[in-house]
């Protein structure tokens, strides 16, 4: 087994592990965001009840509750934005994994001697190449989406 093939296999495993770790971290963060959403929702409900029921309370107190409610809404919007970014990252990881698998398949066809390739092999190679281009285009769209989102937030 040539050294370059072992190196490619090792690098493929390493990149797969990196993607797996990143996916786990994203999943944990999404779960944390979900818990935080529920907590913010409960705090918001309490503040709304206070604002509606305590009409006789001082104006300063009502202003303070309103400001707290607005702060919670802002915090929730920030979490929603982060959640959106994480969902894009999940899609990107899926496409990256798909691209690696297609690369590996394509490499196996391309390493085959042209004289030994059957018409089915050549057709499969072209199909894999077509799928690979589609995946790269999808990743490009995601990157553009992230860039547009980042620019709009600025």
From TrEMBL:
Source species, domain of life: Eukaryota
Subcellular location, record wording: Membrane
Keyword terms, alphabetized: Coiled coil, Membrane, Monooxygenase, Oxidoreductase
SMART domains with a match to the protein in the record: DUF3585
Molecular function terms from GO: monooxygenase activity
Organism: Brachypodius melanocephalos
Name this polypeptide is given: MICA1 monooxygenase
Listed InterPro entries: bMERB_dom, F-actin_Monoox_Mical
BMERB domain segment(s): 13-154
Residue ranges of coiled coil: 23-57
Main location per the UniProt record: membrane
């Amino acid at each position: 087994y040539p050294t370059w093939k072992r190196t490619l296999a090792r690098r493929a495993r390493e990149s797969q592990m990196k993607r797996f770790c990143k996916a786990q971290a994203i999943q944990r963060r999404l779960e944390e965001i979900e818990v935080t959403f529920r907590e913010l929702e409960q705090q918001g409900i309490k503040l709304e009840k206070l604002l509606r029921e305590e009409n006789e309370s001082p104006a300063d107190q009502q202003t303070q509750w309103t400001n707290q409610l607005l702060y919670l809404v802002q915090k929730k919007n920030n979490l929603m934005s982060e959640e959106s970014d994480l969902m894009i990252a999940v899609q990107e990881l899926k496409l990256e994994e798909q691209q690696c698998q297609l690369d590996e398949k394509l490499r196996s066809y391309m390493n085959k001697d042209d004289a030994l390739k059957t018409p089915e092999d050549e057709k499969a190679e072209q199909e894999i190449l077509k799928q690979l281009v589609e995946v790269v285009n999808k990743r490009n769209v995601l990157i553009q989406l992230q860039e547009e989102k980042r620019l709009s937030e600025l």
